[in-house]
């Protein structure tokens, strides 16, 4: 049992990702929006096996890498998200009806149970909003690097301090696999999930389509190869939102807020390159209008790097 527990805690991979509308490289730097969901950073450590306090739920799941079905991994993450409203061009005055600024500093534990055709993931996220989330400090630090391309900061209206929690469950199916084992292949992955908490309560469903050269399985153990894998994906998701604290304001006392839209479409497309144990990815995200006083959506981009350790 001791040997099994030690194996289950072995590090599988480490990853870092950054979300920012400054990564909209198809736009001139001075035209990149710097508003709405304007920044997100996240670092994660993935371990083999179920989390120690969840093993009683997953007795039939081996540590991924030891068995094909079903197998378990768990992830510890720390991150920060920043949301900002729209300003009058060339000024620091906020436009009427724009969302309040907000920072969200959090830690998360998630567990994944993988089968060849299905992935189930549960997670718990705990964090804080308000000045302690360091949204203003982080944005000021990065804006000072290139002030010529950044608007003036205005954090006079931001969400106050509030502790938050999100419980989430997501399921992804792998269907319609074409060209498995061949140089060029693809698959279709419908997915659905639900989140519950004072920070976010919503249901979501969508579908992802992947294709590429030497495409690996999306969540099972990969085979190390000297030939790079190049993959492309597109995703469409509809969010049914009951509550989003970054729009609705803090739950336990009044704060600045806007009126949420109940249904929000989101579209993504991107690519990744995997060589041996290193994976680098870039994706574009288009979120449609999230609240009634914003007439249009918002585009942002993601850069990610993942390094997988040997088993």
Structure description:
The chain is mostly beta strands and 311 residues long. The chain has one domain: Outer membrane protein (Lipocalin). The protein is 6% helix and 51% strand. The chain has a twelve-stranded antiparallel β-barrel. Strand 9 (184-196) and strand 10 (200-213) form a beta hairpin. The two termini are 19 Å apart. The model is unreliable at 1-7 (pLDDT under 50).
Task: Briefly say what this structure is.
With 311 residues, the chain is mostly beta strands. The protein has helices spanning 2-8, 135-143, 245-248, and strands spanning 11-20, 36-48, 62-63, 71-84, 102-115, 118-129, 162-173, 175-178, 184-196, 200-213, 229-244, 263-275, 278-287, 298-308.
Q: How large is the count of helical segments?
A: 3
Strand content: over 45%
Supply the CATH class: Mainly Beta
Distance between the termini: 19 Å
Oligomer designation: single chain
- So what's the overall shape? globular
What's the CATH H-level homologous superfamily? Outer membrane protein
The whole-angstrom Rg is 20 Å
